User: Which sequence fits this backbone?
């Protein structure tokens, strides 16, 4: 799953590199609350530790996000998945894929890794129950040959969580 | 008595700001005023604006009105707070005076002093205005609908990317941005489409971006990793011709020690030429000048007409003085 989509395997463009360097510097000065960037020398793949917000269903739990940047980031959205085990959430599949519109159709190049992280934490925090999406098994089976979530035709139906 | 005076003051505000002033209530005054910085009405020089509500109680003017920002563009929280607190301070300073006009003026002063884009380009995250770079700073632009600012290069890169995505339903990312070379096609796409601001998703018109495309080519070099804007698109053939003609006129003017011959009182017909055209030696052959006008206009190929109308915008901006005479000549197929 990790080395799937063609986009994420292509090297970063110069513009993407500059932008990511800038984001990384910004992150080091002012990281979003509850997140920790695991330092690597790979600018194109970030691994980020997420801590469930206090007072929510995920308080005290830690998960890992994997963010892969395409050649033309930020024109194209990064691929963001949870490294399994993924949190139990009605919009998060057991293979780590996240159903969140800003990662796909609603991506805008003005968004940043930091703003994505905040959206994901907010999605976790507003969860009413720790459960998988209804179609989890079917979806995960379809993705077995390592399909990227960016190739899924997502249908965003729930704007509450 | 006081009520009449207050009403007179409200009238004064209305007179000053006319369409930019909405009166919710005349007494006690409750006004919404759309305030802009002083830019001599040049909208391209305007980066901020605000709608300010002033709501006075029955004890006005002893008690200053309540002041708040209803809506604003181009102002972050810091600058909004600065604006509102300076207007409130002014209100306390002027307690028991009729202050509505003075408060508006104070707000306009503040807006004028803050009338510059702030912060980073939302697309590359580097400062919009790089003070260290001085005149080498990258050119930037703002969207008229929301006043969000971007480096020209950045927003055009994004715009072209969107166009390419819409255009090719092929698999993403494999095609190069340089495929958008067909200027006609590009032009058409721009005219038909509207975009959404990357920051606030407010819809803007394609022409907002289009005019930047026309400006940007003259002073920027795009990063090799980015999209190259077609030179021909930025400076079409007709524009080059216009420049040549303009330079010819300029040269003639310089030769005549800055004088341009006074216009004669004669009607100019298609096929007639200026007395001494500099660029076109063929015009010196006398017989051609006497061509019947009718055939000339009939034979004019439609293509030249079209290019003429497309570039009229450019022409009217420059060299009004040289007048219609030059346009006549340009549309003549012989040149």
Assistant:
């Amino acid at each position: 799953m990790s080395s799937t989509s063609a986009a994420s395997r292509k090297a970063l463009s110069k513009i993407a590199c500059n932008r990511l360097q800038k984001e990384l510097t910004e992150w080091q000065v002012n990281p979003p609350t509850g997140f920790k960037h695991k330092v690597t020398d790979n600018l194109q793949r970030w691994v980020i530790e997420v801590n469930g917000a206090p007072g929510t269903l995920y308080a005290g739990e830690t998960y890992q996000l994997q963010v892969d940047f395409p050649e033309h980031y930020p024109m194209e959205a990064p691929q963001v998945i949870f490294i399994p085990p993924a949190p139990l959430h009605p919009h998060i599949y057991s293979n780590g894929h996240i159903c969140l519109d800003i990662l796909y159709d609603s991506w805008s190049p003005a968004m940043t890794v930091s703003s994505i992280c905040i959206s994901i934490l907010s999605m976790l925090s507003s969860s009413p129950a720790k459960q998988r999406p209804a179609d989890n098994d079917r979806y995960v089976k379809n993705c077995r040959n390592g399909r990227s979530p960016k190739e899924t035709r997502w249908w965003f139906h729930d704007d509450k969580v | 008595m006081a009520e009449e005076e207050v009403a007179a003051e409200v009238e004064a505000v209305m007179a000053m700001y006319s369409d930019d002033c909405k009166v919710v209530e005349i007494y006690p005054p409750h006004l919404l005023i759309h305030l802009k910085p002083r830019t001599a009405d040049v909208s391209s020089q305007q980066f901020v604006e605000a709608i300010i509500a002033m709501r006075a109680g029955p004890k006005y003017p002893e008690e200053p009105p309540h002041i708040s920002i209803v809506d604003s563009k181009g102002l972050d929280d810091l600058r909004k707070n600065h604006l509102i607190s300076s207007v409130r301070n002014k209100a306390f300073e002027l307690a028991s005076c009729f202050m509505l006009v003075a408060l508006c003026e104070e707000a306009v002063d503040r807006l004028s002093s803050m009338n510059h884009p702030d912060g980073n380009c939302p697309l590359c995250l580097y400062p919009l205005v790089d003070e260290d770079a001085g005149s080498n700073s990258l050119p930037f632009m703002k969207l008229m609908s929301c006043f969000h600012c971007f480096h020209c290069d950045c927003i055009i890169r994004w715009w072209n990317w969107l166009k390419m995505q819409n255009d090719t339903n092929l698999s993403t990312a494999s095609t190069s941005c340089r495929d958008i070379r067909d200027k006609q096609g590009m032009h058409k796409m721009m005219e038909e489409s509207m975009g959404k601001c990357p920051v606030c998703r407010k819809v803007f018109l394609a022409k907002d971006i289009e005019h930047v495309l026309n400006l940007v080519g003259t002073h920027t070099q795009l990063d090799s990793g980015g999209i190259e804007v077609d030179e021909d698109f930025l400076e079409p053939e007709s524009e080059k011709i216009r420049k040549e003609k303009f330079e010819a006129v300029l040269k003639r003017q310089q030769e005549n020690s800055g004088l341009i011959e006074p216009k004669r009182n004669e009607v100019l017909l298609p096929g007639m030429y200026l007395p001494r055209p500099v660029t076109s030696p063929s015009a010196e052959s006398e017989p051609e000048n006497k061509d019947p006008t009718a055939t000339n206009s009939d034979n004019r190929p439609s293509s030249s007409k079209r290019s003429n109308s497309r570039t009229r915008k450019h022409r009217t901006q420059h060299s009004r003085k040289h007048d219609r005479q030059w346009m006549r000549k340009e549309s003549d197929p012989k040149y």
Summary: Chain A touches chain B at residues 6-7, 10, 13-15, 18-19, 22-23, 26, 70-72, 74-76, 108-110, 112 (CB under 8 Å). The radius of gyration of chain A is 15 Å. Chain A has one domain: 6-143.
